[in-house]
Amino acid sequence: DTDVIVNMISCNSHDDLLFFTNLGKVYRMRAYNIPEATKTSKGRAIVNLMMLQGDEKITAIVANAQDKATLFMATEQGYIKKTKMSEFDLVRKNGKIASTGW
């Protein structure tokens, strides 16, 4: 009752989802690995699906990323980074550093 939906992402079950965190890491997960739920269920915390560190939080999710696309990241402190999406093709279970200086 106290939780609200912040973002809704439309994707196919075989799409890859990229989860970017506040610590500058990226995690990759197939959409079919996220469990389905009914509209009245409470859902499941993301920390139960990924190997996040204690103070790590998901800040952005990218779906349906094409290999030729480019991702632009910016922080409140003024750091910017432009990266090809193909750089995120191989992401291990414990994540990959997407950007430093966050």
Number of beta-strand segments = 6
Into which percentage range does the β-strand content fall? Answer: 25-35%
What number is the mean pLDDT? 86
Sheet having the most strands: 4 strands, antiparallel
> Topology as H/E string?
EEEEEE
Number of helices: 0
Distance between the termini: 32 Å
Q: Which structural class matches the secondary elements?
A: mainly beta
Percent of residues in helical segments? under 10%
User: What is the radius of gyration?
Assistant: 14 Å
Which strand order does the major sheet show?
Answer: 3-1-2-6
Pick out the low-confidence regions. none
Shape: globular
Walk me through this protein's architecture.
The protein has 102 residues and is mainly β. Helices cover 0% and strands 29% of the residues. It is built from no helices and 6 strands. The chain has strands at 16-21, 25-30, 58-63, 70-74, 80-84, 96-97. Strands 3-1-2-6 form a 4-stranded antiparallel sheet, with no helix packed on it. The N and C termini lie far apart (32 Å). The relative contact order is 0.25.
What characteristics describe this protein?
0% helix, 4-stranded antiparallel sheet, mainly beta, two-stranded antiparallel sheet, 102 residues, single chain
Helix and strand topology:
Elements: E1 16-21, E2 25-30, E3 58-63, E4 70-74, E5 80-84, E6 96-97
Antiparallel strand pairs: 1-2, 1-3, 2-6, 4-5
Provide a quick synopsis of the model.
This protein is an all-beta fold and 102 residues long. The chain is built from no helices and six strands.
